[in-house]
Design goal:
heterodimer; A: 155 residues; 8 strands; 30% helix; globular; B: 107 residues; mainly alpha; two-stranded antiparallel sheet; 5 helices
Amino acid sequence: MERKTKVLAEDGKQDILITREFELPVELLFKAYVEPDIVTQWMGTKVLRLESRQYGGYEFETADPQGNILFRAHGTIHDIVPGKKIVRTFEMENAGFDVQIEFLQFEPLTPDTSKLTIQMIFRSPELRDAQLKLPFAYGINMAHNRLQQIANQLK
Amino acid sequence: MDLRRDVFQAIADPTRRAILTLLAIHAMTPGAIAAHFDSSRQTISKHIQILTECELLKQEQNGREIYYHFNPKKMKEIADFIEPFRNRWDDKFNKLEAVMKQYKTKK
């Protein structure tokens, strides 16, 4: 499949810019971010709570078939303009990355296509780099969880 | 401990990035590198040392002179870093697009 997502992470800066063009009208693209059951479908995580309004917030959780929690994240929605933008915080729990701010901008390109721009701002350049390295860190966590499971069985 | 983080710190500094740009064109002696900057030779020498420790530069003895070379392999490693992150988001967004296309036809 063609790769349309672009990521810009300049050296020494503490933000990441992600852009992506979709073959979807902007209304549908925006809907994918505010409807809990749709978010579940593409994010692959359980949506425990999603209040898509100013002062609202959200909680996501992913567990393995045994019920062990692999991922938990939450945040607050600071600003939301339907079809235009979402400003929210995001924090992965027990990951040590601290909270990040996300600016999501939705733009129509044609009646049938749209563009999403996400700017993620981290507390420091080091934390941003750690986030970029996540596939590695995640692998380590998974290994650690597995070890924990085996250890629990021995008890 | 974490070499990769060190590489990122190494390229975070503007003077060190300028040194890498210079050496990407051709190998140079520490004196020739320092001549390009207003900073003291000691300061530049410290920058060269950091870059060498992170393997972004390689030393080569040529007679009595030491030449510094740029190591493109290490630089590529930094670029490759972003790729897994980009792939993860690309996969998610492809999923989003597929889910919403289906949603549209259902309506």
